[in-house]
Amino acid sequence: MLKNFVMPDLYPAAPELFLAAMACVILLVDALAGSTRRWLAPVLTMLTLIGCALITYATFDGTATLTFSNMFVDDPLSDFLKLLLYIAVITVLIYGRDYLVARNLDKGEYYLLLLFATLGMMVMISAYNFLAIYLGLEMLSLSLYAMVAIDRDSPRATEAAMKYFVLGALASGLLLYGMSMIYGATGTLELGRVAQAVHEGVANRTILVFGLVFLVAGVAFKLGVVPFHMWIPDVYHGAPTAVTLLISSAPKLAAFAMALRLLVSGLFGLAEHWQTMLMLMAVLSIGIGNLAAIAQSNIKRMLGYSAISHMGFMLLALMSGVVGAEVDPMALINAYSSALYYSVSYVLMSLGAFGMVLLLSRSGYEAESLEDFKGLNKRSPWFALVMAVLMFSMAGIPFFVGFFAKFSVLLAAVAAGHIAVVVLAVIFSLIGAYYYLRIVKLMYFDNPVDGAPIQAGLDMRVLMSLNGLAVAVFGLFPDSLMMLCTATLVRSL
């Protein structure tokens, strides 16, 4: 057996290998250092992520390279998403640091779980095989289950973790069942060969479609779209806010990559089937997400339902790539680059919104209620402005990045002929603008309930300001990010 073993090319997977090695180092350092040197784990975690970013940048060559028996692909799309992933996780580290210290949650295991979750997302982004996708997904999911329950003294966090675990296990089972059916129909686990088998018509189409249904259900759960959204509000609300910040941001990039790899790279020949499913889920997500968010008094739950509606918009772009039997390369690239652009924009906005919740929180106090944002303009005019920019962007008001993200998605859907869906999406977006503007009203026109000064480190204040400025600047100059997304996809698909 060993005589036939061919050593895989490790160079494309250098960032993953470095992160895995550093996670083991941090585990040993944390165990040996004890509770007196807790600062070591977050510092080493930050250095690890910066190291991964440098390695990813250094190994970028603009071409697609397959390794590990074609299970792993290193292409411009994976490098681009990984760099964004590192930025998102570093932001999570900086935003959540004071929150974790104040609640005695800044333990080594938190940072280790964060690194393993990041490793799982990196594997998901570069996976080119059903097993590799599943491996990355489970590494991410198991880490997140533990992170949600990391506050052992909180019954709410424990309950949220149990719900997340049970529903996540169900979704993983659906995904695995779908993969097994497609494997049975095509005889391969490699996405490229699955696509070839579907194109040539050698596989049993009935089995393929059944497998596709289960596959889409698993992907939908990870994206948190209707009808697989049940976990979102409870987990967002129940988890410690620093963990909610992570769940709401970085995994969306990995879930987008997984959806693109599975549906476009592997099952593009069945586009007419999965586009119909995505259309239904997109309309329901945009509608239910916006309507349910209006009724929320807790900002974490409100942003949870908001996330459901935003992922609905992302699906709207994914379902607009193919029109009937016609495959227009320009329309296809436009639709999928709009989906990528929307995912990146949403992660940027979500980091800022939950970052503001963390900014207003302090030891013994959770700024989770909408009431906590009353009179923020009187307490801190600058951060009130930052929050207003984030809310305007999420509502899709010109000229912020959220507006252009929605606009590009709607243009792609109109080009695909989905006029009725676009009209519904616009109506629900207008309805949804209410709950975003409600926060702006509370900040500027109500008297503060809490007059305590905002306690946050200089690093968090600076990064929070840069986050708000990024939302505004990318809104004023949307072409730069859009062109980058388009170029990335053109060189990867």
Architecture overview:
With 493 residues, this protein is mostly helical. It has one domain (11-490). The protein has 20 helices and two strands. The chain has a two-stranded antiparallel ribbon. A hairpin with a 4-residue loop joins strand 1 (65-67) and strand 2 (72-74). The two termini are 35 Å apart. 55% of the residues are buried. The mean pLDDT is 90.
Number-wise, the strands total 2
**Widest β-sheet, arrangement of strands:** 1-2
* Secondary structure tally, helices: 20
Mean pLDDT: 90
Summarize the topology:
Blueprint: H1 14-33, H2 40-58, E1 65-67, E2 72-74, H3 76-102, H4 108-126, H5 130-148, H6 155-186, H7 191-200, H8 205-223, H9 231-238, H10 241-247, H11 250-266, H12 271-294, H13 299-318, H14 329-360, H15 376-379, H16 381-395, H17 401-415, H18 419-445, H19 458-476, H20 478-490
Antiparallel strand pairs: 1-2
Helix pairs in contact: 1-2, 1-4, 2-3, 2-4, 3-4, 3-10, 3-11, 3-14, 4-5, 4-11, 5-6, 6-8, 6-9, 7-11, 8-11, 8-12, 9-10, 9-13, 10-14, 11-14, 12-13, 12-18, 13-14, 13-17, 14-16, 14-17, 14-19, 14-20, 16-18, 16-19, 17-19, 19-20
Structure in a nutshell:
The protein has 493 residues and is mainly α. The protein has helices at 14-33, 40-58, 76-102, 108-126, 130-148, 155-186, 191-200, 205-223, 231-238, 241-247, 250-266, 271-294, 299-318, 329-360, 376-379, 381-395, 401-415, 419-445, 458-476, 478-490, and strands at 65-67, 72-74. The model has no long low-confidence stretch (mean pLDDT 90).
